[in-house]
Design brief:
about 120 residues; Cytochrome C3; 2 domains; three-stranded antiparallel sheet; 5 helices; about 10% strand; elongated; binds heme C
């Protein structure tokens, strides 16, 4: 008799537990998805609008494949938000892309032979 009374109770408890775990997992999955949907790498690009030299497409995958981590760029070089103002003079002065594209860590932005590696018509 006793066990028959306890069983439904235990089952109810177990069901509650499963629901809590499922809800927690759902929240976790949504958070991970939101982060990966926003992140530049992997598989994401940021397009800088057309300038005199044509638009520039920053490819997160190209950079991730070179072993760069989020904190190599964020937030000391770029905010984690697109739409920042980047001027070529700043790049040439070693800021933004120019923090790396200086001929040491990556191909030099100043070099006329390299303009079209970033700028596409
Ligand atoms: C080589 C540099 C670099 C690396 C590495 C990098 N990012 Fe970025 N990220 C950028 C640039 C550039 C932008 C655009 C900034 C702007 O427009 O001013 C950006 C923008 C973003 C944004 C805003 C996107 C939007 O649509 O508003 C997020 C979020 C972001 N990065 C997350 C990440 C995460 C997470 C990682 C690591 C997995 C990462 N980034 C690695 C350079 C980088
Ligand atoms: C490492 C990538 C990279 C290289 C290489 C590069 N640029 Fe840029 N350039 C940019 C980015 C990013 C912007 C900002 C575009 C925007 O915000 O629309 C820009 C903007 C510009 C602009 C717009 C006006 C201004 O002054 O900001 C001009 C003109 C320009 N670049 C010329 C050049 C020339 C000429 C070269 C070659 C000597 C060159 N760029 C090489 C990334 C690069
Ligand atoms: C933290 C360092 C870092 C920053 C910041 C960075 N890059 Fe790079 N980028 C690299 C490295 C490293 C490579 C691969 C080595 C090379 O090609 O010289 C690379 C490669 C590239 C390439 C591939 C070129 C090709 O011909 O395959 C492009 C395009 C590029 N970067 C554009 C940009 C632009 C645009 C920005 C700024 C919005 C930027 N990068 C900022 C490190 C960086």
């Amino acid at each position: 008799m006793r066990s028959k009374e306890l069983l439904p109770h235990a089952r109810e408890k177990a069901e509650k537990y499963v629901k809590v775990v499922a809800a927690a997992l759902a929240v976790l999955v949504i958070c991970l998805f939101a982060v990966s949907a926003m992140a530049v790498p992997p598989g994401k690009t940021v397009e800088f609008p057309d300038g005199a030299m044509g638009k520039v497409i920053f490819d997160g995958k190209v950079h991730a494949d070179k072993g760069l981590k989020c904190n190599d760029c964020h937030t000391k070089i770029f905010p984690m938000k697109k739409g920042g103002t980047i001027a070529m003079a700043d790049i040439n002065a070693g800021k933004f892309c120019g923090a790396c594209h200086n001929g040491t860590r990556a191909f030099a932005a100043k070099d006329a032979a390299n303009c079209t590696r970033c700028h596409k018509k």
